[in-house]
Amino acid sequence: MTRTIPQPPARRTGRPRSGCTPSRARGTLVKDIGKHPTGQSTFSVYDHAARAVTGQRYVVAERRGDWTAIWYLGQKAWFRNPGSAPVAVPSRTRMATPRPGLDSVPVYGRAYPEAAAYPPGVAVQPLVPLQYTFAAGQSYTVGLTTTGEFYKATTFDTTQHRVVRGTQEYHQIQFGHRVMFVRSEDVVVTEA
């Protein structure tokens, strides 16, 4: 038996939906617990929580017929991507996956140096993970690889500015609409 899946309304084009699968064409928008404490994204032009845009790269999580799911903010985000008129373009890239044996890895909004890198007079910046989950089995594209850095500039006098560079290595990942960081020792990076 063949079942025709209705195309979502035009106002939803380009918006990944977590509950939108081949069996349910009108799902809910992807939840962003960082932007919306309740997780409910909106269709507002100012709400980028559920917006995957041209130029960003994502890892395909699953395909079902004309539907494709990408890893987006710790969940599968589905969009209609028919072979006869694809909206996604395949590309080669590096991707990060949690190291074997880890249930999840912390995701950070910035790449700070390790505590030992800070000189006297410069307060250690705490490295606090964001509320998102990057679980085992998920993968995200990697942009740059860098070491932690902090720029202290609390005055207009540039002689008082300090740059703290550490050795802690991070990978910048495309995690939803934004870029975030993971520590290199927490993930395995492969070419895809």
Descriptive report:
By secondary structure, the chain is an all-beta fold. It contains no helices and ten strands. The protein has strands at residues 60-64, 67-72, 75-80, 94-98, 104-105, 134-135, 140-152, 162-175, 178-183, 187-191. The chain has a five-stranded antiparallel beta sheet with strand order 9-8-7-4-10, with no helix packed on it. Strand 2 (67-72) and strand 3 form a beta hairpin. It is elongated. The model is unreliable at 1-13 (pLDDT under 50).
Structure, briefly:
The protein is mostly beta strands and 192 residues long.
The helix count comes to: 0
Number of strands: 10
Q: What class would the helix/strand composition place it in?
A: mainly beta
Q: Into which percent range does the helicity of residues fall? A: under 10%
Low-confidence stretches: 1-13
Mean pLDDT score: 86
Give the termini separation.
35 Å
Which series of helices and strands comes N to C?
EEEEEEEEEE
- From the spread of the alpha carbons, the general shape counts as elongated
| Biggest pleated-sheet summary | 5 strands, antiparallel
Q: Report the sheet-strand fraction.
A: 25-35%
Strand order of the largest sheet: 9-8-7-4-10
Gyration radius, rounded: 20 Å
Can you give keywords for this protein?
single chain; 192 residues; mainly beta; 5-stranded antiparallel beta sheet; 3-stranded antiparallel beta sheet; elongated
